[in-house]
Amino acid sequence: MQSLQVDVAILGSGTAGLSAYRAATQAGKRAVMIENGPYGTTCARVGCMPSKLLIAAAESAQHIRESAPFGVHSSSPEINGREVMDRVRRERDRFVNFVIDDIESFPEADRLRGHARFIEPHLIQVDDHTQVRAANMVIATGSRPNVPAPFQAAGDRLVINDDVFEWDELPQSVAVFGPGVIGLELGQALHRLGVNIRLFGRGGLVGPLQDEAIRQYAEHTFAEEFPLHADAQVEDIRREQDQVVIRFYHPDRARVIEERFDYLLAATGRRPNVDQLNIEAAGLKLDTQGVPEFDSSTLQCVNQDGTPSHIFISGDANNDKPLLHEASDEGRIAGHNAAHFPQVNPGHRRTPISVVFSDPQLAMAGETLPQLKQRLSESQLAIGEVSFENQGRSRVMRINKGLLRVYADKSTGQLLGMEMVGPRAEHIAHLLAWSIQQQLTIKQLLEMPFYHPVIEEGVRTALRDVAHQLIQ
Length: 472
Description:
By secondary structure, the protein is α/β, with parallel strands linked by helices. It has helices at residues 15-26, 42-46, 48-65, 81-104, 161-164, 181-192, 212-225, 324-340, 369-375, 392-396, 425-437, 442-446, 457-467, and strands spanning 2-11, 31-35, 111-113, 116-120, 123-126, 130-139, 143-145, 158-159, 173-177, 196-200, 228-229, 234-240, 243-250, 255-261, 263-266, 270-272, 300-302, 308-313, 353-356, 361-366, 381-387, 403-409, 415-422. The protein folds into three domains: 2-145 and 271-340, FAD/NAD(P)-binding domain (3-Layer(bba) Sandwich), CATH 3.50.50; 149-268, FAD/NAD(P)-binding domain (3-Layer(bba) Sandwich); 353-467, FAD/NAD-linked reductase, C-terminal dimerisation domain (Enolase-like, domain 1), CATH 3.30.390.30. It is built from 13 helices and 23 strands. The strands form five sheets. Strands 1, 2, 3, 4, 5, 6, 17 and 18 form an eight-stranded mixed β-sheet that branches. Strands 8-15-9-10-11 form a five-stranded parallel β-sheet.
């Protein structure tokens, strides 16, 4: 049994773990990074990058289908599923290898392989080969798909997003459960690649949307393209031979029906990988989900007696903001604070921003409407709106489906948040997130240049709508 004594032990080598390791070593501390699974981040292996590769193929097919209104005629796209999936995997592996090369550039002595579990607050056991005693620690163990128990009835026809990218060929049909970010992106992409899909949800949620007006617009738009039940009533899931049979209430037919699918894709959220760490031995206070309680500004965990801990938690492991850029920031903050403990300082946090790469895209930035309604009175909150259905450049390109709502403080005129379903939302969200972080006012934004004809002119229309409501 090998024994190591280090300043900072980092559990996990994903985006948050890598950032934490860099921050700790840059502070001159001896750090080790412990990884139980394959190297390569969630984003590169099974998240952001392979999903966007599948979406890119789907968009290519859709452009061919939608060319006729421009006077450009072609036959229906011939989709070779094997070639689609081959490119997805080849490019995915390329991104993963970049991450692996980065990790393997770290000193070998700083990289431990194996399953880590707490023995006591400062002591970690790695498999049966190493014990690591660390002054301070960062938990950055990421997350994994959450699969509800009823889905197990599908047997080996049950898949998660990780499995999709390992398909050699596209299936004929897939039942997708969960119209969140993953389900919406993969479901629409598979549909556009010729797969028969039906998307089931609960509670009416669509993506991460919080503004009811935007949510309703998005639900209606997506339901026009493929079957979407945002609040499905599913009565039974069972396996019959090589298919999954879903029994559910069909609102349009006003009766219960059964449909058969080759696979059931569970896209029903993710759960933090903290339940196999023997986390109780760390002496931390846990929430009802078994996740350590922590300060979101410092990422510092809380001991059972309520005192600040020497352990920090970052990235998907803390179940707060499961986004790559947030994981990177959190890892840096946690690693820095672990290296300088007991001197712990709040880290710089950026304006929240999220994007769903569906078509039309979904985007959010700043504070959400429910958050603002809790913080501001009705007389303080101003909401500006624009539809993209008749917006000039959007109509020229036939991508004129969308709705943008922006939120501002009536008394200060400051832009506070936005939510959107529509064209090029990923770019508009960035522009407005930058503006929110700079604490710009509606007046200042309207003084900015707007070229013609561009989709961003729609932003100006929404800002003008807010400007009419501001206290002069």
